[in-house]
């Protein structure tokens, strides 16, 4: 095996100047030097030629000269209410163009906003984004609990083959009113690629800026009521086929088929779209279109082009690959009706998202909906087409090798280019954050560590041959702070796995809630594992839960069935007896902790006792994975598999694998038992500061 070539001094300095790590520390503390060819590939994706030693030296000299000549930093972040406080070059003058209009001096207190700083020194001129941001994120005023769900899996008897936004409104209304739940946390509802789904994961969307219309309840669109006879027959035919599909899913006869559901809904919605809208509805659509502006036009254009040419835009005719090309402008005119249809779809989806959040708040929920922002997008999707100038071509986001994934991970999603994002004044990031927060009380940010750095993997290479690329964390956090302040929402960061030292502390200091999962909460950390972490030592500022969509359900973890499943699928990395022994020891350690806490024996069983354990932690938010509440033993997703397990296609079911429709949740004995834990413990109205708990970050 050939050893990777170590980088020379110029290449190392050039990489560091662009935020590219030349070495990194593994989860075990080992220091690894990044190979020279990896650095060259990553720099090339950032528009920097380092292909030869001479090229690297020239690029380094050019970078140093540009830095020396720079009037302003790439981005300035200050606390709202304070002045810009810049140290300018001799003879330079600066002014601030306020976001809301008007100007301000650099010594004047700044209102919250995304302002622009302009500087002049002789003939030199420069501009940079100036973010005036609050000190901290909004945080929940009271402790709360709620269900964690993948919406597609929560079917009612009125669904069209998968859970939809009307089902979400019902789930929120029931759990808020009847159970005292304070929120419902969702998986991503982002738009997916049209046609066959190469990857059914909601975490690899086409666009993070718009939700997918397949989540719409067709009958809830107001124009549905005014279909003429012929259109009504056509829509009723779609509904009948969808109901038959729904019945097969709920009877356990088939898996959720989102492609089929989407096709049926789009067929029906095309008829609903043709119903003339009254003046008020037309005005509402026009207002939505004006609010979303160019982002909506780009998304609708891509959607129309994808219907005509397929979802892989890199394979489109050359003139259509650039969203700003004259040919795209011409195609937009030729496909005007299709573009208008996709604008309308985005609008009605937004309306039903708003209705679901209203239902949650009307039910007394403090937070309501918690939307989920995926870490990236599919490389052939709408956002990758529209924002290609801000994304690193030929690169994929992933993770380095660690104990859980010894080969590393490649998520198949292009990362932001730090320089391009700054050049765009972080507006693309702000836009997708704003969209995720619009109809929510909180936003979960998947892999929140990506605000600080991401692992870039060059195309065609294994994840182990990647490296970290740093972002301007102050700017990235500033954009997130500003948008959360404007929307009045809390932020939950998914901070599981390998986390750089100091990141969790920085996020906590800003008010970002972390994520604590029972399977990883050990004395000494997940690597040390000196025994389960006692409840009072858990973090306060976090969402605490027993499991996630990527882990075994609690019922399977208690029984050991998760090991059996991986053994059947050939996924074990050690002999089966060893895996079973470790799983049993882990489980028994937790059951012993429950006994020490006086939580066992419990008449309702070990699963309920584990949920009762959560109420003894100081954690601000407590999450119940809905399949845990029904006793489901099947994982929604089994990482590392594609075809051997029905990832992202399972309805919520009971312990025997029988699907449980939404209408049956209130009477389900397991659901009732879990809900009683939170009614008997601390309901969602308990103020955070009133709890007698150990302080923590």
From TrEMBL:
MF term (GO), any: 4-alpha-glucanotransferase activity
Annotated catalysed reactions: Transfers a segment of a (1->4)-alpha-D-glucan to a new position in an acceptor, which may be glucose or a (1->4)-alpha-D-glucan
Keyword DNA-binding: no
InterPro entries in alphabetical order: GH, Glyco_hydro_77
Pfam families for this protein: Glyco_hydro_77 (PF02446)
Residues that span the membrane, as ranges: none
Enzyme Commission number: 2.4.1.25
Keywords for this protein: Carbohydrate metabolism, Glycosyltransferase, Transferase
UniProt enzyme class: transferase
The family this protein is said to belong to: Belongs to the disproportionating enzyme family.
The protein, known as: 4-alpha-glucanotransferase
Gene behind this protein: malQ
């Amino acid at each position: 095996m050939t050893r990777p070539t170590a980088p020379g001094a110029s290449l190392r300095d050039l990489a560091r100047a662009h935020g590219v790590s030349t070495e990194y520390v593994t989860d075990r503390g080992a220091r690894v030097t990044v190979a020279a060819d990896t650095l060259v590939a990553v720099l090339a994706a950032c528009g920097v030629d380092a292909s030869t030693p001479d090229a690297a030296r020239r690029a380094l000299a050019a970078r140093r000269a540009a830095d020396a000549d720079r009037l302003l930093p790439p981005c300035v972040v200050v606390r709202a209410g304070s002045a810009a406080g810049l140290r300018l070059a001799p003879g330079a003058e600066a002014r601030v163009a306020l976001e809301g209009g008007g100007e301000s001096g650099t010594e004047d207190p700044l209102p919250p906003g995304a302002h622009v700083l302009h500087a002049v020194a002789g003939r030199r001129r420069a501009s940079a984004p100036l973010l005036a941001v609050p000190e901290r994120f909004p945080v929940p005023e009271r402790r709360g609990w709620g269900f964690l769900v993948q919406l597609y899996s929560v079917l009612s008897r009125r669904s069209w083959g998968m859970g939809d936004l009307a089902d979400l409104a019902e789930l929120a209304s029931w759990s808020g009113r009847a159970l005292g739940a304070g929120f419902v946390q969702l998986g991503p509802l982002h738009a997916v690629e049209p046609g066959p789904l190469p990857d059914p994961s909601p975490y690899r969307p086409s666009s993070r800026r718009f939700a997918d219309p397949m989540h719409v309840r067709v009958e809830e669109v107001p124009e549905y009521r005014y279909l003429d006879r012929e259109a009504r027959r056509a829509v009723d035919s779609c509904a009948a086929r969808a109901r038959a599909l729904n019945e097969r899913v709920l009877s356990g006869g088939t898996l959720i088929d989102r492609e089929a559901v989407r096709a049926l809904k789009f067929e029906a919605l095309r008829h609903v779209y043709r119903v003339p809208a009254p003046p008020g509805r037309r005005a509402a659509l026009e207002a939505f279109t004006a609010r979303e502006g160019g982002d909506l036009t780009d998304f609708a254009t891509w959607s129309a082009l994808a219907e005509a040419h397929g979802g892989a835009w890199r394979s489109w005719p050359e003139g259509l690959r650039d969203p700003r090309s004259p040919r795209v402008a011409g195609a937009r005119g030729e496909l005007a009706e299709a573009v208008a249809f996709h604008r309308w779809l985005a609008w009605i989806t937004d309306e039903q998202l708003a209705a679901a959040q209203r239902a949650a708040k009307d039910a007394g929920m403090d937070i309501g909906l918690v939307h989920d922002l995926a870490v990236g997008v599919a490389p052939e999707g709408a956002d990758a087409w529209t924002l290609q100038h801000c994304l690193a071509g030929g690169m994929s986001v992933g993770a380095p090798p660690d104990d859980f994934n010894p080969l590393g991970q490649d998520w198949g999603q292009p990362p932001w280019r730090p320089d391009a994002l700054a050049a765009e004044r972080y507006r693309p990031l702000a836009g997708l954050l704003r969209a995720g927060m619009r109809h929510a009380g909180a936003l979960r940010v998947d892999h929140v560590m990506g605000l600080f750095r991401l692992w870039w993997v060059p195309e065609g290479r294994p994840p182990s041959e990647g490296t970290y690329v740093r972002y301007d964390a102050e700017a990235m956090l500033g954009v997130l702070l500003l948008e959360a302040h404007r929307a009045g929402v809390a932020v939950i960061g998914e901070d599981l796995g390998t986390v750089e030292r100091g990141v969790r502390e920085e996020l906590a200091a800003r008010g970002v809630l972390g994520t604590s999962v029972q399977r990883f909460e050990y004395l000494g950390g997940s690597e040390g594992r000196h025994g389960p972490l006692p409840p009072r030592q858990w973090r306060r500022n976090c969402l605490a839960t027993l499991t996630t969509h990527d882990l075994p359900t609690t019922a399977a973890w208690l029984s050991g069935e998760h090991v059996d499943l991986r053994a059947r699928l050939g996924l074990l990395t050690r002999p089966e007896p060893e895996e079973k022994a470790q799983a049993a020891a882990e489980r028994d350690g937790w059951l012993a902790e429950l006994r020490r806490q006086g939580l066992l024996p419990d008449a309702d069983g070990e699963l309920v006792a584990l949920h009762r354990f959560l109420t003894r932690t100081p954690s601000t938010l407590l999450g119940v994975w809905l399949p845990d509440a029904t006793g489901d033993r099947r994982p929604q997703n089994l990482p590392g598999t594609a075809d051997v397990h029905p990832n992202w296609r399972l309805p919520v079911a009971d312990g025997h694998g029988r699907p449980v429709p939404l209408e049956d949740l209130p009477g389900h004995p397991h659901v009732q038992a879990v809900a009683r834990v939170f009614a008997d413990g601390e309901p969602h109205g308990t103020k955070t500061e009133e709890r007698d708990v150990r302080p923590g970050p």
